[in-house]
Amino acid sequence: MNLNLNGRTAIVCGASKGLGRACALALAEEGVNLVINARNADALETTAAAIRAQTGVTVQAIAADITTESGRAQVLSACSAPDILITNAGGPPPGDFRQWDEQAWYAAVDANMLTPIFLMKAVVDGMLERGFGRIVNITSSAVKAPISILGLSNGARSGLTGFVAGLARETVAKNVTINNLLPGSFETDRLTSTIDSYAKQLGVSADKVRQQQMQTNPAGRFGDPAEFGALCAFICGDKAGFITGQNLLLDGGAYPGTF
């Protein structure tokens, strides 16, 4: 399927690895030129070089903390008028809400709610003027099915979800869509580290925990980041202009509800 994205430009945050990298690569394979961002300069440049070599598109790597005003300014100075914006920031740590102080809540809301909102604010009017824009926020399946130990993420990401629900209805008439992708368990470094930590707590092997977790998913496996990237690219294409304000769950059927 031709998504008619060749020659477009995208900002992709958190793109050095994992789901952000998968989205960047999928867009590049459609001919989208990229400005990619992450905090680790070495990992980011490695990803940029690999995507350039594989696809031939222009890839500019901006190593900065996107959750800060200065970091956002660096990224936006490299690409002030993107056609596509993919927001993505690492989730806050798990834990018991009784242990989280005020600063922990501020940090979670800043990274997982306010940062995407500020990025959208910076680019959406230009998209509206040009008559094309695609904004995709990578959030979490916890928005759909909250997880008690992920209270910081549940709260901050749900706030972003509510904000998007309103804004997306104001922009779609001018061909600017805003959607959220909600990943479940995907084969990423973050998942591996989470499994390793949990296995250590239980005093069992990481492989045992991995197998148990895969067996609890109806798909019998974890997701492939390439699957996530492919859906992201489709949502950004010209065939998806009638999809906006949606929370698209990618979890292998783990969420058991009808709605």
Brief summary of the model shown:
The protein has 259 residues and is α/β, with parallel strands linked by helices. The protein has helices spanning 18-29, 41-55, 69-78, 102-130, 151-171, 189-202, 206-216, 225-236, and strands spanning 9-13, 33-38, 59-63, 84-87, 133-138, 176-183, 247-250. It has a seven-stranded parallel sheet with strand order 3-2-1-4-5-6-7, with helices on both faces.
Can you give a write-up of this model?
The protein has 259 residues and is an alpha/beta fold. The protein is built from eight helices and seven strands; from the N terminus they run E-H-E-H-E-H-E-H-E-H-E-H-H-H-E. The protein has helices spanning 18-29, 41-55, 69-78, 102-130, 151-171, 189-202, 206-216, 225-236, and strands at residues 9-13, 33-38, 59-63, 84-87, 133-138, 176-183, 247-250. Helix 1 (18-29) packs parallel to helix 2 and helix 4 (102-130) packs parallel to helix 5. The two termini are 29 Å apart.
**What class would the helix/strand composition place it in?**
alpha/beta
Largest sheet: number of strands, sense, barrel closure: 7 strands, parallel
Strand content: 5-15%
Cross-sheet strand order for the largest sheet:
3-2-1-4-5-6-7
N- to C-terminal separation? Answer: 29 Å
* Shape estimate: globular
Uncertain runs are none
